[in-house]
Every structure is written in structure tokens, then in C-alpha cells.
Amino acid sequence: MAKTENRTAIEDYLKVIFSLGEWQDETVSNAAVAARLGVSTSSVSEMARKLADNGLVAHKRYGGMRLTDEGLEQALQMVRRHRLVETFLVTSLGYAWDEVHDDAEVLEHAVSTLMVERMDTQLGHPWRDPHGDPIPTADGVLHQPTAEPLATTPVGERRFVARIDDDDPALLRWLAETGIAVDAEVVVRERKPFGGATRLDVRAPGAAVDGHLVAELGDQAVAALLVSVERASPKPLNAKGCHYSDCRHISAPRVSEKNR
Amino acid sequence: MAKTENRTAIEDYLKVIFSLGEWQDETVSNAAVAARLGVSTSSVSEMARKLADNGLVAHKRYGGMRLTDEGLEQALQMVRRHRLVETFLVTSLGYAWDEVHDDAEVLEHAVSTLMVERMDTQLGHPWRDPHGDPIPTADGVLHQPTAEPLATTPVGERRFVARIDDDDPALLRWLAETGIAVDAEVVVRERKPFGGATRLDVRAPGAAVDGHLVAELGDQAVAALLVSVERASPKPLNAKGCHYSDCRHISAPRVSEKNR
DNA sequence: GATAAAAGTTGGGTATGCCGAACTCTGCGT
DNA sequence: ACGCAGAGTTCGGCATACCCAACTTTTATC
pTM value? Predict the structure, then answer.
């Protein structure tokens, strides 16, 4: 025997390396991975060796590590699992959007490929999760729309909320109260200096043209929002399946994979 | 730290001890647990000590072990999780009944209490899973209908399929092909001696009065079937919520529980 | 270019959960 | 009532995945 739950740890490392590595290219530091996972750097060193042995990362001593094609492919599958699970919990099981993250974090390691594909089918192949994060396709292609932080959006310009960081449930509840959701239209009206509040007009996705609210957001809330000049298209814009015209594609060069 | 995934192992032991102990009372042997879990008896000894330390089983050296009230309560919760997950996979995600067991085995350790209750609600509080096994209620009460093995049913008497062992997916597919399902009406017509085939009339749950098929089942298939004289009532028969008039109730004496 | 701070690695140690081998207890059969 | 087979336990080991503390390498600064 001797095959305990080793998968969970590896999967968590892959996810973190993927997200820290600017989605694929960059070398990520040991320390960054340790901080994100809440483990010590010595644990990361050990795991780096193990991942390298398994061909999932390239790792040179005292340098950082970078996902290999195989590691990237598996990381994209994990992202797909996580985001599909979140979408499923909200759409099919009536979770509020601030309740899904922790459950998804556990379930992503437990759902089979069959279940992932059944959820995907039942949800009608969603392209993004409840927080606006794009869902990689079954063959591992991620459409990454270009979006800017709300923090740097010029005053007076119209933007659409593209993605909302889902780490803090309390923040999500607060944002929901202020009317901010994915696809909401926002215009920054005023920025108070030195970390002061940001005042903005908010119009909910389906609201009337003149139906806007005024919200005052603190630093933490502003930092959680990514916005786009363009409104997300409900239908794909091109053959590649993008919902924004300005969009990167990330995918692992076909690795004939059979494991998992 | 030191908080790895210890829950899974404990939960698996509790489930096995529960099912081996004739649903609660009997002391189960170390060897039986080892055989069922596919581990060595030394592993069971160690775990028995740990479970006893945690107050989940009563264990006397060189004697077997028996679930405590707390252990029984947790075991019933695991049974609930497993069977609700199976029901959910079939009803809401389109699994075939032979596909659910393995996925449920993993998911039962990963679903949160919130998710269990959401599934339960969405399914309309089902009282049994796709294989006919009763689902304990949220407060840990299991209605265990009396059922007899098909192997000992007298020739010529009418019975209703109450439960079907779900361990072997191939067997389940075969049974489905022969028209056998939960609530199917069966009459044993002939038993060939020395482990020969059993021939029986089968009428599917919704079929016309004269719409019966003839099936020939081998030993293994016959052993997987539990039947009841009485047809399961679609609605509860009494205040206790039983769907059969002859039914045992199993529950842990209220233990004010907060963990998990 | 020396050197100290930062970043990464190694080594020794912990906890879980499993194993086989050796030892110990129980109880059955004579 | 004895003794032995079988069931149960203990012990030393293995693998994973962590930790801290000590050591090595890189880097950034003077």
C-alpha cells in the first residue's frame, strides 16, 4: 500500500505556483509559495524537489521554480475544478457567493473527472465562475481577459466589473450590499488621498440606465476588484470562445495525459 | 500545526465498525475490520487505540471493539453523507447507479455539513438511496426496514426488492439489464441445487400487472438482493417516518455534538 | 570586491497511517 | 488442566508532509 492522500498537497502547490507565476512564464520564489500556502520555506524546498522529480516543475538550486508543460496542464485542471465547483455550488445548490470558496477548496481535490464533466454539462459549459474568474476548458485552455485594477482606473471613466477576489467572504457580502457584482457598471467619482475611501457610481448588471447607486469603498475593497473597459459579451466573440476582445490564451502544449 | 487529513481514516474505520457490528450492538473483531478495510491487523490495533482515546469506541485489550454513543452518531453521519451523495449523483448529475459508489466513497469525506443539507433539501429529503439503502436523518436516526435475503425466499412467494448491494458495478449493470431495480416485484420460480441459477419472475416497479420478465440469476447476484414481503410505501406510514411497517430505529442517544 | 542580509537548502525531529515480525493473551479441544 | 492455534498487541520501519535550527548560496550595498 503506502499511498496516503499525497495528491492534495501536490495539487495545492501546483495551483499556487501557477497563480504566482503570472499564469505560467515566470519563475516563482520559494518564499512566495511558502507565504501563500502558509508553510515554512523548508517545506517548500522539500516539495520543490518532489515536484521536480515528478516532472511537474523545473527547479534549479537556489533559483526559483517554474511549471513544466505537464505541471501547467495539471494546474489548469485544478483551476478548472475549483471554478466549476464554485459555479456549481452557487448555481445548483443555492450557495451564496461568499460561501463557496472554502467548500470548493476541499472539493476540488475530491471530485472525479466524471463529476467535473457532469457539472460542466449541467451548467451549460460556463466560461466564468461566480466571481468572474474564467474557467479553463476541459482540454486545458484558459481565456484570460485583460482587466485593470479598479485602483488605477481614471476618475470619470466607465468600467465594468470583470473579476472580484473571493478570498474574504465578509468582503464579498459587503460588496453585494453596495450593489457591486460581476458585470456591474462603475464610474470612479472621487479618490481621497492616502488610502482614503474611493467614491463611485455603481449600476447593477440588469439595472435601468439611470438606476445607479453611490458606493464608498475602502482600500481593501478596491484592491479586490478588476475592471474592464468593455462589457463582457454573453456570447463568445470569436472562434476561440473569448468573451472579451482583449484576451490572452493560456494552455499547456498538448501533453498526452492519462493519469489522475 | 500538525493537522493533516486525519479525518478520512477515522471516518472509514467508523463506517466499517458500524456496518460490521450489526448496526450498533455487537462487538466487532479486529480481524474483521482489517479484512474489510484491506489493512493489516496491526494497523487496526493502533487505530483502535486512537479511536478509544477519542471516545469513539469502547475497546478492551484482546477483546473486540464497539462504537460508543458518540462513535455511533458519527458513523450514522457518515452513512448519511455517503447515501445522500450517491442519491445526489444519480438524481442531479445523471450518474448511472453503478457509477456512484467510488465517487461517493471519496466525496463523503469532503462534503461539508452545509453541502449535505443543501443536497438533502434539493432532493426533497429522500429516505433511501438509489440502491434502496435507508438514509439517516440529519439528527442521526436510521430507519432500518426488516428485509430478507432473496436466497432464502420460498419458491412461489411474491416479494419486493428492498435493497441491492452496490459493491460491484458490473453486477449492478447486469441486474439493470434483467429488469431488477429497487421496488421491483419478484417471485422465485425455481432454484437449481448446488449453487445453480435461480429463476424468477420480475416485474419492474411501474410495469403493468402482467408485464413480467423471467430472469436467471447466479449465486452472486442472488446474494446481492434483499427483499421484503411488503411494498415500500411512497409516503411515510407513521409519525416516525417509516416506509415499511416492520422497521427498526437506530440512533445515538443525543450526544451534544459540536465537532466536525 | 567585501560583506551582510535575504533566500534557499539540509538535517534532525514530530505526527499520521501503514507494514511485517515477534511477542502475548484467549479459549478450544482433548 | 494443559497446550497450542489463532487473534490481538507491540515494536521497529517506511512514506508523507510538516516544523525549527543551522548551514550555504545569492544578492544587494557600501
Answer: 0.90
Flag whether residue B234 sits within 8 Å of chain A, measured between CB atoms.
no
Instruction: Report pLDDT for A173.
Output: 94
Mutation target to probe the A interface, by most A beta carbons within 10 A, among B93, B106, B113 is: B93
> Crossing angle for the helix pair B30-37 and B41-53, nearest 10 degrees?
110
Neighbour-count burial for A144-180, b at 16+ CB within 10 Å, e otherwise: bbebeebeebeeeeebbbbbbbbeeeebbebbeebbb
What is the predicted pLDDT for the residue at A214? 92
Per-residue pLDDT averaged across A29-54, rounded?
96
Q: Which domains does chain A have, with CATH numbers?
A: 2-67 (1.10.10.10), 74-145+238-258 (1.10.10.10), 148-228 (2.30.30.90)
pLDDT at A208: 72
The answer to whether B94 contacts A118, with C-beta atoms less than 8 Å apart, is: yes
Whether B114 sits inside 8 A of A99 (CB atoms) is yes
At A76, is the secondary structure helix, strand, or coil?
helix
Instruction: Give which of A112, A116, A119, A121 to mutate to test B binding, by max B Cβ within 10 Å.
Output: A112
Tell me the pLDDT band of B23, cut-offs 50, 70 and 90: low
With a pLDDT cut of 70, the percent of chain B lying above it is 94
Give A4 CA → C15 C1' in Å.
14
Average pLDDT over residues B231-248: 88
Are B212 and B202 in contact by the 8 Å Cβ rule? The answer is yes
The dihedral built from the CA positions of residue B56, B58, B60 and B66, taken in this order, carries a sign that is negative
pLDDT for the residue numbered A255: 54
Binary contact (A95, B106; C-beta < 8 A): no
